[in-house]
Amino acid sequence: MHADQPRTRETSGGPDTARPGERETDCAPDRAEAPDAHATAAGSGPDPDPGVTGAAGAAPRPGALDGIVVADFGRVLAGPYMTMLLADLGAEVIKIERPGTGDDTRAWGPPFADGEATYFLGVNRNKRSLALDLTDPAGLEAARAVVARADVLVENFRPGTMERFGLGHEDLRASHPGLIYCSVTGFGAGEGARLPGYDLLVQAMGGLMSVTGEPGGPGTKTGVALVDVITGLHAGLGILAALRHRERTGEGQRVEVSLLTSLLSALSNQSAAYLAAGVVPRALGNRHPSIAPYEVFEAADRPLALAVGNDRQFRTLCAHLGLAGLAEDARFATNTARVAHREELVAALSGPLAGRTADSWFEELTPAGVPCGPINDLAAAFAFAERLGLEPAVPAEAAGPGQVAHPIALSATPPVYAAAPPRLGQHTAALLGELGLPDRLRREAP
Description:
It is a single chain. By secondary structure, the chain is α/β, with parallel strands linked by helices. The chain contains 17 helices and eleven strands. The protein has helices spanning 78-88, 118-121, 137-149, 161-164, 169-173, 199-205, 226-249, 259-266, 269-277, 311-320, 335-340, 342-353, 358-365, 378-387, 396-399, 428-434, 439-444; strands spanning 69-72, 92-97, 112-113, 116-117, 127-131, 152-155, 180-185, 253-258, 294-298, 303-307, 372-374. It is elongated and about 80 Å long. The two termini are 30 Å apart. Residues 1-57 have low confidence and may be disordered.
């Protein structure tokens, strides 16, 4: 999904700002203020206390990023995913959205939960929504007021868009030298600025699809917008590094990440194979280019992933399959030899593995130290994580439906689930009041 190219009405492909001179209302209409899943952690109203944890009776606890204010102009996935993770860790995130439509993903459904697109719900908890028309002087004034009190600004508009509103990094640096300004693009701000930053396009042009899918196939995208997610994580890491630098020096700086460079970095061993050895990797299906056996086999009932990473594990596998002599065969005694003779190896292992169910192999081989497991759907994957005690989902009463738990556990400052994803413009009036903006703006807010 395009995580970085803000669609504007004056460019092909996108809705984030109106065409200059095209007047919209300053604030989006809101729904009734009846308590619902989009109210607070406890369902007690539309403006939750950022310190609420969602656990009944739990005392508010400051997060690791408590006191950090983020002006979030991002939408779709890379930016919102990252700012949600920051919000979970205590940052105050003010999500600035276009009146009437808001973040593109509010309309990306089905599926929906309580009338909201689950795509939006999955990456926008713990934020407050401020609906502003940046082409209207009053809306722009409000946006600048948010930025003035922010520690971090996040934007993923098409390069040049923020500058048109006087909100570019150079525009703000003199008046706000401590600001960390994070820009997320698809292909950078230079020659790549004209290219639309859709995740699928980056997967294709950045090489990921060339190593994904069956050999000789047309290339396959991953089952999720993985490049957006990786880019969001890189952006968050850059922001944290910039905050640490500011802590020492008082100086803000610009953080720039692109989907393309994030993908090339995340390709890791495949990128290293090309840069260091001149090898251009190709798709191998579920096989690994450098390890064997490291792929999917058919068990009696469903596929089984087998991830043998060293010679000891291979010897143990052979013993449990009744193939002890195989581990002594010169063709299979070392990993390098196994990769060179992969087809013969797969033929030797396939018969015994097909004789039992995937779960039975998992239960026998895992305690013996042989990594393996069945291919789960998401329902089974969440159930598995729950059985392991990982608590992968946030209780609905804490932050609304469909919330995946923060992946980082901190012993002293754990993530906090203070509020469900906001309704469009839900906090506009309250925020304008906090910012001390003119009464006329507050009267027009929902």
